[in-house]
Design goal:
- There is one protein chain.
- Helix 7 packs across helix 8.
- This protein is an alpha/beta fold and 329 residues long.
- The longest helix has 25 residues.
- A six-stranded mixed sheet has the order 2-3-1-4-5-6, with helices on both faces. It has a three-stranded antiparallel sheet with strand order 7-8-9, with no helix packed on it.
- The C terminus is likely disordered.
- The chain is globular.
- It has nine helices and nine strands.
Length: 329
């Protein structure tokens, strides 16, 4: 049985009192050939129609695709951002600047809307998550991996993954995960942790007691919270193909020696990554983007404009909190 996709968002919306509509922007970043497009199509069970890659490009560039999706009463306006050419040139110095500039440009766009004298409906195109793909042939993080994640981690939620992990043996996969985890710690790179952040409280909001706790206090579907740290980096296998296996329909990759099932946790961490993004913590990715990453940018820009080193950021209003919850455009 193929799992449902965006209908997993329903408990999050219900628990937060939101309309069942989301606006979500995800960036996939990594060298070509690591299965980024296949992963996105697999995660959302949709074959996105992307523009052809510009083979004449001499540097990384931004490519986006936006799709309105609906499933079981849940509506999702999804934008997928990728950077063709990233890491594919002889000299990759500054290859991450394209992604960084895009994230900052969306912050700037959102701030301009907030500051407009006559503000209409705010369109939120800020990047809520960056899924960073690491080669299965690596022995750890490359200098480019470290430079990229270090430069982005204070402005977007970073989720590191090992692409095409089905090319590794079980022992190889375990060793690579340990090596990458070690390198992440040594480099001071902090992957997204839904249980790390605390939201500012607002006494005027009836939900303030709940909101002032961990961002991930909402444990969607009523299950126990999952310790995602043990899976970082997520070693994933993705596939658009479906097969019949022992009376079941499965997604995966078929080899002469057997089948690698994408949704089988003994074969891949895909199911845990799907749970993180769709089943439990999309609200948290959106909320931390707004309250943590965007607020840092907003404070820096306004402090420079006012000629001050720091400014005080007012507590979020109930209206603003509702906007974030509902994925308001």
């Amino acid at each position: 049985m193929i799992p449902n996709t965006i209908s997993h968002l329903y408990p999050q919306a219900h628990n937060h009192g939101a309309r069942h509509r989301y606006r979500f922007v995800v960036m996939v970043l990594g060298r070509s050939g690591l299965g980024k497009s296949t992963f996105v199509d697999s995660l959302f069970a949709h074959n996105f129609q992307r523009e052809p890659i510009d083979k004449n490009a001499t540097s990384p560039y931004i490519r986006t695709v936006t799709q309105d999706m609906e499933e079981r009463g849940v509506n999702l306006k999804l934008t997928v951002v990728d950077t063709p050419g990233y890491g594919d040139f002889i000299d990759n110095t500054g290859a991450h600047n394209c992604a960084k500039a895009y994230v900052q440009s969306q912050f700037k766009r959102f701030l301009s809307q907030e500051m407009a004298p006559k503000r209409g409906r705010v369109s939120d195109t800020r990047v809520h998550a960056c899924i960073y793909f690491i080669s299965p042939n690596a022995r750890g993080l490359s200098p480019l991996d470290i430079a990229t994640m270090t430069s982005l981690q204070d402005m977007v939620n970073i989720i590191p993954v090992i692409g095409k992990s089905d090319t590794l043996t079980v022992d190889e996969r375990h060793s690579l995960k340990l090596a990458i985890s070690r390198d992440l710690q040594r480099a001071g790179i902090r992957p997204f942790d839904p249980y790390e952040f605390v939201l500012p409280a607002d006494d005027s909001d009836d939900d303030s007691a709940d909101e002032s706790q961990s961002v991930a206090a909402n444990e969607a579907n009523g299950g126990e919270k999952e310790d995602y740290k043990q899976h970082i980096p997520f070693a994933i296998t993705s596939s658009r193909d479906k097969y019949e296996l022992n009376g079941r329909t499965v997604r995966g990759r078929k080899y002469e020696w057997g089948m690698v099932e994408m949704d089988n946790e003994s074969h891949s961490d895909f199911i845990h990554l799907r749970n993180l993004i769709l089943r439990q913590h999309m609200n948290d990715l959106i909320t931390t983007t707004n309250y943590i990453h965007y607020e840092k940018y907003r404070e820096l820009v306004l402090s420079k404009a006012l000629g001050k080193s720091t400014i005080s950021t007012p507590a979020p209003t109930p209206q603003k909190r509702a906007m974030v919850r509902s994925g308001n455009e």
